[in-house]
Amino acid sequence: MEKFMGKWKLTASDNFDEYMKAVGIGFASRQIANMAKPSLIFSVDDQGLTSMKSITTFKTVEIKFRLDEEFDEITADDRQAKTVMKLVDAKLVQTQSWEGKSTTIVREIQDGKLILTCTMDDVVAVRTYEKEE
């Protein structure tokens, strides 16, 4: 988890609107999300909980988790999901389940960049973040 720690800034996004449609996010919310350039901050608190905070000018969303433990998540688009975070082959794999649906968000470090691969059914979006100093 150490390599994920710190602050990351979105620098590229591919097919994210199609992914949000597949998840079921409405038009207005997608428009806002497509304009947002979030910063992502990973940290660990004194109790060993990992925090992942997404900050935009529109909204800040934070989840706190322990690897391999399911928790309740209210997503940025206000879905209430059951979520599990796992570390698999040095990738942080997030699985969200709600209303009989499921999506997977895989975070990995490639060439010093944080790559998010969001998958819903057969729709895949890729978002690239670079480390902020």
Could you give a short description of this structure?
The chain is mainly β and 133 residues long. It contains two helices and ten strands. It has one domain (2-131): Lipocalin.
Question: What's the layout of helices and strands?
Answer:
Layout: E1 6-14, H1 16-23, H2 27-35, E2 39-44, E3 50-55, E4 60-65, E5 71-74, E6 80-88, E7 91-98, E8 101-110, E9 113-120, E10 123-131
Antiparallel strand pairs: 1-2, 1-10, 2-3, 3-4, 5-6, 6-7, 7-8, 8-9, 9-10
Helix pairs in contact: 1-2
Structure description:
The chain is mostly beta strands and 133 residues long. It has helices at 16-23, 27-35; strands at residues 6-14, 39-44, 50-55, 60-65, 71-74, 80-88, 91-98, 101-110, 113-120, 123-131. α1 (16-23) packs antiparallel against α2 (27-35). The radius of gyration is 14 Å and the shape is globular.
Mean pLDDT: 95
CATH topology: Lipocalin
Number of helices: 2
Instruction: Give the CA-based shape.
Output: globular
Number of strands: 10
Helix content: 10-25%
Quick one: biggest sheet?
10 strands, antiparallel
Name the CATH superfamily assignment: Calycin beta-barrel core domain
Gyration radius from CA atoms, angstroms: 14 Å
CATH C-level = Mainly Beta
Do you know the CATH architecture?
Beta Barrel
Biggest sheet strand order reads: 4-3-2-1-10-9-8-7-6-5
Total domain units: 1
Order of secondary-structure elements: EHHEEEEEEEEE
- Portion of residues in beta strands equals over 45%
Which structural class is indicated by helix and strand composition?
A: mainly beta
Distance between the termini: 18 Å
Low-confidence stretches: none
